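Hallway conversation turned thread

IA: we were arguing at lunch whether anyone had actually written out Glycosyl hydrolase family 28 protein end to end. Turns out nobody had. So, for the record, here is the sequence (454 residues) and right after it the structure tokens. Reply here if something looks off.
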Amino acid sequence: MKQATRWMLAAALALGASRGFAADFNAAKYGAKGDGVTMNTAAIQQAIDAAAKEHGTVVFPAGTYLTGSVFVKSGVTLRLDKGVTLLGSQNIKDYPVMPSRIAGIEMSWPAALVNVYKQENAAVVGEGTIDGDGKVFWQAYWDLRKDYNARGLRWASDYDAGRPRLLQVFDSSQVQIGGGLLLRRSGFWTVHICYSHDVAVDGVTIRNNVDGRGPSTDGIDIDSSRKVLVAHADIEANDDGIVMKAGRDADGLRVARPTEDVVVRDSIVRDAKAGFVFGSETSGGFRNIEAYNIQMLAKVPVGIMFKSAHTRGGWGEDIRLHDIDMDGVPVVMRVNMNWNPAYSYARIPESEKNYPAHWKVLATPVPEQQGIAHFHDVKIWNIKAKAAATAFEVDGFANAPLQRFSFDQIDIEAKKGGHINDAQDWRFANLRLRSDVPIEVGKASSVSGVPASP
């Protein structure tokens, strides 16, 4: 067992044990009302602030508590028991704009509904619900996107449509999330762990595809963070399920913070655009990432995905993905180093004269030698996939091939094998591919253990 894995298991147990005797602070005593209509932001924050003085636990009577952004302080447990719902305000003014990182660049952005922001030793746990009620923010995005698409600004729409995440851990440490929480209808990403370390997300159910399918409602995003454990997650999202991120283009290369020492285990992705993902924000790099005992179902179009762009840069190494089952997932593994060009490459049209500062950041050129992501030394084993359409869709860059990927005990039932391009020293052992069309290996690739195409 890797040292990071041992640490995470011990840390999660220790963090839970350390909270056993904390004093309770009932939010109702500070004026919170669970009637679903009273705005409770100030009352909940007062309870949190009082609990912070004694490292206590904030609790609630059963009910639905309408609120804007709340900020969990150091030493505080925010406990949502069964029957308790935090319901997000649909007024964007109830989410204060703060310094953050969004989709790979540092900028000011509306706070999440629940925040652990520059704190330590904090927790958000329980069998209750955090409901973002996010449909109004989804529609605002689509309205902006329609206008931006017509102006050649597809790449800017995700950054200009400020939407609240559901739960963010930012620049914090020793944080515990889970214990049976239901997270639903996020306005944007659901759980965002950014610039943080020693974080355990254990026992969350994510249901974002209620009231429609919200754009960019990722499940769990681990962003330039380290020593992170994700376990027992059950995810339905309308974008990536569980995703590793590390910065975008010039700004991500400036920050240069990797995501590393991460374990994801014992989870299921039922609905998402992709199940387990690296990118597309890859600039800071990835190291020592392990995912295992993951199940993916038929509403997930792609099981394992690596995505980047030729301005993104970064790297990935010592990545281990194993014991993953896919049932009806159309594409088992996709690698696309030139992903979604309309979004990935920012070019400000000459017709745009007055624009926000972050447009210039997004459009800052990246030298070619810095812009290519380099993934190497990836191990993938014990993968079972049935009723797939395609086994592999792999496209790197000829001047930066994907190096030293090894596969063992791969059992795939698919209509076609797909293709592997720009891959160097890829090795398959114990590959069982039941397909009418074999895998096509590109001329620039070095792949062993795959039967040659007829």
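OS: looked through it. Residues 270 and 297 are 5 Å apart (CA to CA).
IA: good, adding that to the notes. The chain has one domain: 72-448.
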